[in-house]
Automatic annotation (TrEMBL):
Its EC number is 3.2.1.4. This is Endoglucanase. Belongs to the glycosyl hydrolase 9 (cellulase E) family. Residues 662-752, 755-843 form the Fibronectin type-III domain. Residues 500-656, 845-997 form the CBM3 domain. Residues 1-20 form the signal peptide. Keywords: Carbohydrate metabolism, Cellulose degradation, Glycosidase, Hydrolase, Polysaccharide degradation, Signal. SUPFAM superfamilies: Carbohydrate-binding domain, Fibronectin type III, Six-hairpin glycosidases.
Length: 997
């Protein structure tokens, strides 16, 4: 829909007398910047749309992008004999509230009508239309008779009492409707508005579907107009959640305006204007309300903009009141109206109300954008556009917290939105797991308080809930932001990235008791599925036995018996042969027809206790494959007890089978264009047998496979068109499957003579350096040297070289590097082979001290660094500890001052001191070191003695996070004390332990 929808409504120039005056208020509050922020608006829009796919109910389509969502709510409407599957779940719950769902769909359709070019520029037009269609399909399904509309599925209180993923809901989901005997004009007219607005969106692409929606919209509006009433007087369950506070006159005006725009039938315009005449006048004498904004309940603010534009285009005198009322509202949000203005936070957020503060801001921004596009007064046009821009940038991260309020986007985004399925608890508990298992990309959370304060807390549904109506105006305003500031912005390729899945099914087991001829097992079969959550009513597990000792004693499997002492639904088999030659047998515990699902204690796991009894004197469980690592006491997860779903293994290791896992995506992918060709290279993926190369002619795909079974780490794609852009991804393949795609790279072949010829690289490692040499490549104009850390991306370390050797003096001892050389000329590049070199220095005498280190477990990213040490005297004489110093090297990650604490030390915390010293110039991954010393009170360390644990901790004074992943002395894998030469020790001024960076 490339043409602006107002082609039926001609633009007119409004005289100054039509435009209501406003005055400026000097509040002393700062306003968020009203310019393009440092944001990728195309990415933000892409993710905001994706959120609606995460909210889908019903059977999901084949193109579902949300890997952690599956079919759900498949019995919706069965209680009344109507198919009510589909639609959106409202927020972080699973109720389908028709009123806010319709309001959200209308806003999204309005945004496409206004800003289709913004969606198209971001490559998201088809995505937004697909999501609007998901809602409108449901509305037409729920409109079962001309005067009957099903307006809610699910009971609010019973739904909210359970915390789990949508796919395994077990509660009753009642259906509620409005009809002629108990009407709801607000609900019916809002649904009519959604369908009418969407009919405009689809009029060009799918006229048949558009006409179908329009017919439903006409019937629904007639129903709303003929049978008057508030929907919450009939669907009383909704009153506690989405009560119709403003009544239905605003929806009658709103729906009538949209039907007029969809049909050009003046009867709808007359009905809309008549409804507007019945609006409340609480905004002052003859004025309509102006101190709120468009939302799921109040449609006055959107309706009056539509009516201002329609009546102005028709030169109707009523235009004045709609224009003046619109500007009173927008001025209230900007410069103030009648001495009052919306609250502004110190950080510049226009803040209306605590519960979901950002939804109001985003909705006000959207209608401000819409009106600024139409109003002719340049002052007002700039005022309203600047207001909307500043508010959107605040939401995206230009705020005092320097944090995004959109999940999965920008800096420091929310991690704990109040959303059941994204959290994916198997325990019916907001606190388990501690972190969400899924990223709810694009969801705008409720937002901060009036002081810009916000806590990312899953239980805070006031500030941290998400909802379809929250994202509606926000999404539309992002489409406009993309038009204004996102001309060169691109959505993310290969979005969304595959999530790292945890174990979804497994058995926790323990030895309950044992004797000379029996072993009794306690086993709990877990279903913690989340990709997506799934009902497990065909689950089983196998416990494998090795009966070699039984047969060696002249007995057989018939002498082994299995008995069950306790079960929560399992049928347990006798031993069945698996490998007769090796005497391997399996006992199967079959939980078929028992519901095991991630729905809380008693549901997510089921227990069985069984005893395996063998012949006396010929029984030894130690050789049983499934007995490995089992102990008495608390059951633990066992990979040796595999789990099956409908007979297909979904977890664990069967005896004699080495598990193969899918390789990770290749990294370090680079494209080197040549004449009618592109050469790709990448780093090896662990476990990969071969690689597949895929190509697209549009960024983000779809991709076509151009090569399979590639055994090396390079591939040249020939026969291409010079000057044409080609987009590539690479995947790694083994027997377990294919990895996710690599990061996309771009290659554009260029005409020329020929790319440089082949070259071969060799090298040697030295002390904090590597020396490289290579053979000459025919036709090369110059060379560049590229380096990558293990599994990292190659980066240039030297360019423009005309010699055949290079010494890398920035290499660090103890670090392995991948090197390659690129031969360059005007036609393109050629890549050498890759060599791996690890610099190392001459050994340092350990003298008389050894420093042992372990990580305190603070993790790669934390606001505290927690190294722990143990110093050992390896000499033959006692050492005065006051002469000893230990140095721990790290990157400071900022300029803030640091503070050291000794939390515990065997030698006494008061006897341990710490100070920080800058490393100038910085050496690789160290720009600072912590120097620990000891007072005389620490005493001396006898020969062969150890200090015992010294628990250190330091933080920045502003408590911001460190990134320890690049710290010289840090090793998060060391959880037990071990000698560590990346911490140095000194006696007096003599280094006696370790390697300095």
């Amino acid at each position: 829909m490339k043409g602006r929808w107002w082609r039926r409504v001609a633009m007119v120039t409004l005289s100054a007398g039509l435009l209501a005056g406003s005055f400026s208020m000097n509040t002393g509050l700062r306003q968020a910047d009203a310019a393009a922020g440092d944001h990728n608006y195309a990415e933000a829009l892409q993710k905001a749309i994706y959120f609606y796919e995460a909210q889908r109910s019903g059977p999901l389509p084949a193109n579902n992008r949300v890997e952690w969502r599956g079919d759900s709510g498949l019995q919706d409407g069965a209680d009344v004999g109507v198919d009510l599957t589909g639609g959106w779940y409202d927020a972080g719950d699973h109720v389908k509230f028709g009123f806010p769902m319709a309001a959200s769909a209308t806003m999204l359709a309005w945004s496409v009508v206004e800003y289709a070019d913004g969606y198209e520029q971001a490559g998201q037009l088809e995505e937004i239309k697909d999501n609007i269609r998901w809602a409108t399909d449901y509305f037409m399904k729920a409109h079962t008779k001309p005067n009957e509309l099903w307006g809610q599925v699910g009971g609010g209180n019973i739904d909210h009492a359970w915390w789990g993923p949508a796919e395994v809901m077990q509660m009753n989901r009642p259906s509620f409707k409005i009809d002629a005997s108990c009407p709801g004009s607000d609900l019916a007219a809002e649904t009519a508005a959604a369908l009418a607005a969407a009919s405009i969106v689809f009029a060009d692409d799918d006229p048949t579907y558009s006409a179908k929606m329009l017919q439903h919209a006409k019937e629904l509006y007639n129903f709303a107009d003929t049978y008057r009433g508030k929907y919450t007087d009939c669907i009383t369950d909704a009153a506690a959640f989405y009560n119709s506070w403003t009544g239905y006159e605003d929806e009658l005006a709103w729906g009538g305006a949209w039907l007029y725009l969809a049909t050009n039938d003046n009867a709808y315009l007359s009905k809309a204007m008549a409804a507007a005449d019945r609006w409340s006048t609480s905004g002052g004498s003859a004025n309509w309300p102006y101190t709120w904004t468009q939302g799921w309940d109040s449609k006055h603010y959107g309706a009056q903009i539509l009516l201002a534009r329609i009546t102005s285009s028709l030169n109707m005198p009523e235009a004045t009141k709609f224009i003046q009322s619109t500007e009173r509202n927008l001025d209230y949000w900007t410069v103030g109206t009648n001495g009052g203005r919306v609250t502004y936070t110190p950080g510049g957020l226009a803040w209306l109300d605590q519960w979901g503060s950002l939804r109001y801001t985003a909705n006000a921004a959207f209608i401000a954008f819409v009106y600024s596009d139409w109003v002719s007064d340049p002052v007002k046009k700039s005022r309203y556009q600047n207001f909307a821009t500043s508010q959107m940038n605040y939401i995206l991260g230009d705020n005092p917290r320097q944090s995004s309020y959109v999940v999965g986007y920008g800096k420091n985004p929310p991690q704990h939105p109040h959303h059941r399925t994204a959290h994916s608890s198997w325990m019916n508990n907001e606190d388990i797991p501690a972190n969400h298992r899924h990223i709810l990309y694009g969801a705008m959370v409720g937002g901060p308080n009036a002081s810009d304060q916000y806590t990312d807390d899953i239980s805070d549904y006031v500030s941290n809930e998400v909802a379809t109506d929250y994202n509606a105006g926000f999404t539309g305003a992002l489409a406009k932001m993309n038009l204004l500031y996102g001309q060169n912005h691109q959505p993310l390729a290969n979005f969304p990235a595959p999530e790292v899945k945890g174990d979804e099914y497994f058995v926790e087991a323990a030895v309950r008791s044992s004797g000379s001829n029996y072993t009794e097992i306690r086993a709990l079969l877990n279903n913690r599925s989340g990709w997506p959550a799934r009902m497990g009513d065909k689950l089983s597990f196998k416990y494998f036995l090795d009966l070699s000792e039984v047969y060696a004693a002249g007995r057989t499997v018939s002498d082994v018996q299995v008995t069950v002492s306790s079960t929560e639904g399992a049928t347990v088999s006798q031993p069945v042969v698996v490998d007769a030659a090796k005497r391997i047998y399996a006992v199967t515990a079959d939980f078929s027809n028992t519901k095991i699902y991630p729905g809380g204690e008693g549901n997510y796991r089921k227990e069985v206790q069984f005893r395996i009894t063998g012949p006396q004197g010929a029984w030894n469980p130690a050789n049983d494959p499934s007995y490995q690592n089992l102990t008495t006491g608390t059951p633990v997860k066992s990979a040796h007890i595999p789990v099956y779903d409908a007979g297909v293994k979904v977890y664990g290791q069967e005896p004699g089978v080495t598990p193969v896992t899918v390789p990770v995506a290749p990294t370090g992918v680079q494209a080197s264009p040549g004449n009618n060709q592109v050469t790709l290279s990448w780093t090896a993926s662990a476990g990969a047998v071969s690689y597949t190369v895929k190509r697209a002619e549009v960024s983000g795909g779809p991709y076509t496979t151009v090569a399979t079974g590639v055994n090396g780490l390079t591939y040249t794609n020939t026969g291409l068109t010079n000057g044409k852009a080609y987009y590539y991804v690479v995947t790694a393949v083994n027997a377990a499957g294919e990895s996710p795609a690599s990061v996309q790279v771009l290659g554009t072949p260029q005409a020329g003579s020929t790319v440089p010829g082949a070259l071969t690289l060799s090298g040697t490692a030295g002390n904090n350096q590597t020396v490289l040499s290579w053979t000459a490549a025919s036709g090369a104009a110059s060379y560049k040297v590229q380096r990558a850390a293990a599994n990292g991306t190659f980066a240039d370390v030297a360019t423009g070289l005309t010699v055949l050797t290079y010494t890398d003096t920035t290499a660090l001892n103890g670090t392995s590097y991948n090197y390659r050389v690129v031969a360059v000329n005007a036609s393109g590049q050629s890549l050498s082979n890759v060599v791996v070199l690890t610099p190392s220095g001459p050994p340092v005498s350990t003298g008389t001290l050894e420093v042992q280190y372990r990580s305190g477990g603070s993790g790669n990213s934390s606001n505290a660094v927690t190294p722990q040490f143990n110093v050992k005297n390896t000499g033959t004489q006692a050492i005065d500890l006051s002469t000893v110093k230990i140095r721990y090297y790290f990157t400071k990650d900022g300029t803030e001052d640091l503070t050291f604490w000794c939390d515990y030390a065997v030698v006494g915390t008061a006897n341990v001191q710490g100070k920080f010293v800058n490393v100038n110039p910085a050496k690789g991954t160290a720009d600072t070191y912590l120097e620990i010393s000891f007072t005389s009170g620490a005493g001396s360390l006898a020969a062969g003695a150890e200090t015992g644990v010294i628990q250190g901790r330091f933080s920045k004074n502003n408590w911001s996070n460190f990134d320890q992943s690049n710290d010289y002395s840090y090793d998060g894998s060391k959880t037990a004390f071990a000698a560590w030469n990346k911490v140095t020790a000194y006696q007096g001024s003599t280094q006696v332990w370790g390697l300095e960076p």
